[in-house]
Amino acid sequence: MRVLVAPDKFAGTLTAVEAAEAIAAGWRRQAPDDEIVLAPMSDGGPGFVDVLHATLGGDLLAVTVEAPSGDEVPATLLLVDDTAYVESAQACGIHLTQAALGEFGTTVGVGTLLLTAINAGARRVVVGLGGTGTIDGGAGLLAALGADADVSLDVGGIFLDGITEVDLDIAKGLVDGVEIVAATDVDNPLTGLFGAAKTFGAQKGLDDETQVMMDGFLEQFAAVTDRRLALAPGAGAAGGLGFALLLLGATRVSGIELVAEAVGLAAQARAADLIITGEGAFDYSSRAGKVPAGVAAVAAEALRPCVTLAGQVLVGSREMRALGMDAAYSLVDAVGETRAFGDPAGALTELAARVARTWSA
């Protein structure tokens, strides 16, 4: 058999590259004659740059940027010819914030990455949006590019209260002639019931009252910039970073679709007999913009079976098939929670070997 292994990261335990290698090791243990092809994936969140570098090659450029807390942290952008790939989570990821820092966190670091890419000669910059801990509407990013306002843009979304004017001329001038692409895993607007604050605020440390307050501040920000763009799909991605990029003329695309195209996933799927994907938790959120659903769609188009190996499987068999999966296997169910979190690579290798007994011809 020819087996295509295309997982996402297992958040908090394994990168997509590590997960793919662990699955391949387990499969080879049980079915050594099968041909294994690795295609680690990302939806634009953490691991975006690593996944693309593993497939596309290119040059990695190390940068020091400002984290949401104001501390300096290392980040890396990928240069492939005249295209740069930027991972917002490296500069303002939720792993860089504290429990209740979301409303105070800045996205200045993402702006620094964007500016560095342009100064390095990139004529196209793809920004992966996902896994962030901030919610400032991208105001910090705009400030890093020279935007000005009658409130501070670089100290967190909570300080957008009272904003009445914003000058984006310098920021727009810096990106003039550069194609900007926002690669997102969600299509939420900036504000409202399904906006950045009310949908993703809890995971960024905002309680219910603060979510309502922050939605109001983002609405003020939209009112003095572009209300129409605030309603556009993807404007609410990454705490509103999507909105800031749209203000700069960006095009929004699905992160998983962009990565799938970049790695030639469709052609690889047609050449495979079986496709394996995976992520930390396979649940209802996996259906929209996430790696397993994207990989399953490619597998379906190629008329190939697709199975998921996940840390946890939180949907039933009917829902699993509705998400495009022929089967789903839980790491926690197979080896127990202690082993799954204590030795994630070894546990995933073991699970893959078990799955190979069923699926390898």
Task: Describe what you observe in this structure.
The protein has 17 helices and 13 strands. The strands form three sheets. A six-stranded mixed sheet has the order 3-4-5-6-9-10, sandwiched between helices. It has a five-stranded parallel sheet with strand order 2-1-11-12-13. The chain has a two-stranded antiparallel ribbon with strand order 7-8. The longest helix has 16 residues, at 208-223. It is globular. α14 links the parallel β12 (306-313) and β13. 40% of the residues lie in helices and 20% in strands. It is α/β, with parallel strands linked by helices and 361 residues long. α1 (16-30) packs across α17 (344-359). The chain folds into two domains: 2-41 and 264-359, Rossmann fold (3-Layer(aba) Sandwich), CATH 3.40.50.10350; 48-256, Glycerate kinase, domain 2 (Alpha-Beta Complex). Its EC number is 2.7.1.31. One of its GO terms (molecular function) is glycerate kinase activity. Pfam families: Gly_kinase.
Structural category is alpha/beta
Name the assembly state: single chain
Helix coverage percent of residues? Answer: 25-40%
Mean pLDDT, rounded to whole units?
A: 94
Largest sheet: 6 strands, mixed
CATH classification class of the largest domain: Alpha Beta
Distance between the termini: 7 Å
Q: How many helix segments?
A: 17
The named CATH superfamily of the largest domain: Glycerate kinase, domain 2
Family: Belongs to the glycerate kinase type-1 family.
InterPro entries: Glyc_kinase_flavodox-like_fold (IPR018193), Glycerate_kinase (IPR004381), Glycerate_kinase_RE-like (IPR018197), Glycerate_kinase_sf (IPR036129)
GO molecular function: glycerate kinase activity
Keywords: Kinase, Transferase
